[in-house]
Amino acid sequence: MDFELSEEHLAVQEAAKDFAQNELLPGVIERDNEQKFDPVLLRKMGELGFLGMMVSPEYGGGGMDTLSYVIAMEELSKVDASASVIMSVNNSLVCWGMETYGTDAQKEKYLTQLAAGKYIGAFCLSEPQAGSDATSQHTTAKEEGDHYLLNGTKNWITNGNSSSVCLVIAHTHREKGHKGINVFIVEKGWEGFSVGKKEDKMGIRASDTHTLMFTDVKVPKENRIGEDGFGFKFAMSTLNGGRIGIAAQALGIASGAFELSLKYAQERKTFGKPISEHQAIQFKLSEMDTRIEAARLLVYKAARLKDQGKDYIKAAAMAKLYASDVAMWVTTEAVQIHGGYGYVREYHVERLMRDAKITQIYEGTSEIQKLVIARELLK
Asked: pTM score > 0.70 for this model?
């Protein structure tokens, strides 16, 4: 087993690190305070290829592998998890789902724009009564002639207001249960499509998270992805890959907090010497680094399995479960190492701790990951 990154992967890592440190770091605290992401930065992310990394060059993407994607996700997440969740949704959920299951016409019309960052995508699965229980969709799509009439509400939608294109999961045949669910490509601006309130979140505050509402929205039949009843399978398959992206985000948050803590521990002095020379701090740093390295190996394994075309469902769930727990633990320890300074915004670690929590919740809670792992074990 080769643990060394290739020259191509190292180049991706360097490019992502350069963007994170030179473009994202300045203003990251202000963006968090103001709960706004700079559209100029979003445009740069598109121009640099971060929003369509795994999309085929045929459709304007980078044609990179999943490992390249998670490497870039880690570097951006070290600095700004709000930026990386925008990147994750666009890459893992919207672009991947559309390229894997969409028609040529859908790819030509939408994927080319999404891969270039000219469009931003949103993935609309969660509802007020349908989070972990994704089969309980109350949003409906009634077939009428050459179109569907879409009605319902989606919440917790990342890129909810900034998106141009949404993938919306809805029931078309409720009597068929999960086999009566479909997924539709819906454009922002269509009549009956409205954006609701913006959520005032604990973390990833610069990314816009909104409720989206659909009232008799006419969706052309050609905007349905896959065969009739394919929507639930589409959602689950897409989320399996999405978990790798969120695991990489959690890994990056933990790595960023660790790097800040290591630097601070070597600079901060107590009792006449750097706190890094105190065994209590050394033990914290040692365990932080060990857990991060273990999480990285799980994330890389899931990415490699996906790239090799092998079953990665259990590996992705394990990576997300463990990496998100590591992110929460490491960031809490980072605040402790920083002491009083860790509790103020200037030193970044309090923001990283707030950002870490969501990785245990979205793209399937930690409890759902355990169910997925157990199901795969017991097959």
From this structure: yes
